[in-house]
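Example 3.2
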Amino acid sequence: MARQVRVQFPGAIYHAMARGDRQEPIVKDDHDRDAFADLLEELVERTGFEVFAWVLMTNHYHLAFKTPEPNLVEGMKWFQNTWTKRFNARHRLWGHLYGGRYKAILVEEGEHLGTLIDYIHLNPFRAGLVTVRQGLESYRWSSLPDYVKAPRQRRPWVQVERGLVHKEFGGDTAAQRRRYLRHLEAVARERGGVPELPDGEERSLQSTLRRGWYFGAEEFRERMLAQLEKLKGSEGKGHRRRSGYNGVQARDHGEKEAKRMLKAGLAAAGLRKADLRKLKKSDWRKRSIGRVIRKRTVMPVSWIAEHLEMGHPNQAATLVRHDPAREWGAEWKKARDLIRRIESNE
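Structure, written as tokens:
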């Protein structure tokens, strides 16, 4: 079966999900679950994704998010690969963690996105992990706890206020947050935790999210087909076709962020771009700037090696793999301080 084309454009909204290989767990304990949530925050920082809702179950996850830049493929590739590496390293495993590619369908803003947010938040209820009496929000590894907390108490990267707007609740106030929780409790009691589809739609929500390529009205489908035709018309063969974006789209959020961090790093280190060629490939200032770019963007090590004059990508990968420590040599404390200055000014 041919792979589904990844339709990417600025402002696209997606429902993404992935399951463990052979339905096996993608997390084993609370330490894993907390680390997965931390990785989501890293994903937002690196890509600019705007997350409306998320939930982590034992053997799969769901995300609803907007991409201000057309960088779905690059961001999700980094996210899945990074979690696989961290999970395998912690549990001394190797090989695939997920059962194939992640599923990503396009979602229409408004009612459909609001329905999807409910669907994601009610996932633990449908799985029998939490009850209304216990409190739907008591399941920790989801964005629902953020939807019932005051702004200062929640994860800042979850788009709660905008999510409530899509649910047609008037604003991010304590009263509206309570209304939203009562709404979910009613769906749990009266519909078994399965939200009602927008007017006029008769498809099963679960089948649409599992087997469809879009979630929206007919007019939305027509617009997305036009985007698909534009994508097919602008692509060539080979890598661009497989990845789902063209050469112009590849110059996206990730590279812009990396260039911005490179500029900030050079300024913080008191260097000019021309100075890099004069320094050793392993110079602590190069390593510090490269470490920030590696941590905060999805750009490959080859990009870091080229722009920081660090030699072969394999060598650069070793040099920027870890935060500064004594193994960096006598300048490791200076490197640590430089990284802090770069991150505080970016």
